[in-house]
Give the backbone structure.
Amino acid sequence: MTDRRLTIVGAGLAGALFAALLARKGWQVDVFEKRGDPRVKGYEGGRSINLALAERGLHALKQADADGPVMAQAVMMRGRMVHFLDGRVELQRYGRDDSEVIWSVHRGDLNITLLDIAERAGARLHFHRGFVDADFDGCVARYRDGRDGHVEAVPFVALVGADGAGSQLRAAMDAYRPVGERSEFLDHSYKELEIPPAPGGGFRIEPNALHIWPRGRYMCIALPNDEKTFTVTLFLPNESPGDDVPSFANVRSPAEARALFERDFPDALPLIPALEQDWARNPPGLLGTLTLERWHLDRRAVLVGDAAHAMVPFHGQGMNCAFEDCVDLARRLQGEDDLGSAFAAFESARKPNASAIQRMALDNYLEMRDRVDDPDFLLQRALEQVLQERHPGRFIPHYAMVTFMRIPYALALARSEIQRVILEEATEGVAALSEVDLAAADAAVLESLPPLQDAA
Ligand code: FAD
């Protein structure tokens, strides 16, 4: 590429990583961010909101040499700690051992680490500059200073939209040439609460796990933070057909929230001393899946991360996928001579994969809230481990393909569907692993699953 200049809209997770990746390759990068600098005022996202980092995201961080500082504060999560209604607790490991785990990372700290790396590599960061709109013919974008309302026009060579699910750049592109946008909101939303440290300063519950309280049509989860807190997320339907199913329509007040926890999450309730205050302070968050027919406008603009493909959070892959986008686009920009060709190649490579993980994320909601405490689900997970040992490199559990590998999401989805049928057929009418017809399952694996190579 000859003209190595780009403007990034949004200095969130994807914008900051992308700026770091390109600036380190010698690109002239300007980043415009609506909010203030989180390194000055503290992260505006608020308290310790955390995210699960998996192999795809970790690999991307390594490309920017950001893995060291990020992993120094990450908390390992070995599996799901399932909290049953009767008070029993059970750890379901995600992988075979501690080489197959996910990591809880603090959104604000991660963002700050990436901004520091981007800036050190030469990226110019402009805070309090919210993208308003663009004149794509004249290649000039307008940004509003959030402090005094002043609007500034700034020329660009090309715009990269990393401004999240509500992307204003996407709206501007759509107004210029429709991008074919569809948003499907889930009929469930979420509320964030907090488990503080124990009085002695330690964690109140097992730190090295993602805690789940599955309750059929709804659930609660909790992820650890390195400051010994947990961020709790309660997912509830927006409406419910009757008062027997809790929803944000019938659990409105802090007192109603307490009553819900007393009934359905009794072991979680004493862990959340500020339940009422958290409930009153944090509005419910919407969840949805965004799809676009086009992610780019010839050589002038392209969208990455949530701006292109926001998804529901149930596979913990939105950020991981956004980071994978950044690595892919940065590599194509290095290799191509023309911005438009790089954007087009990026879009056609990443779109089917984004759509696959969006679908898997929706499917995973049902699994987390309703299936993780089912005997047939547990039998299928046990058989999955057996088939993995009998057919290494050929039968790889669904969760492992998405979380511990970097094979394309679309390939993980296709293989998972074949494996799901094998598991369902092998466990039909069967109560224990010892009763499974392993010879038949082996034959099905060998017939339908060719050996798989991980993306190196
Ligand atoms: P964002 O992180 O939203 O960043 C967008 C940035 O653009 C922000 O800094 C914003 O201020 C800025 N901006 C917005 N508008 C403008 C404008 N007009 N001009 C300039 N700047 C602007 N993903 C995981 O991988 N693991 C998880 O465990 C996980 N858990 C999640 C839990 C919940 C409840 C939710 C809602 C999401 C979760 N995700 C998770 C998804 C993850 O949060 C997103 O996929 C990720 O933040 C996307 O990064 P992004 O940079 O594309 O967008």
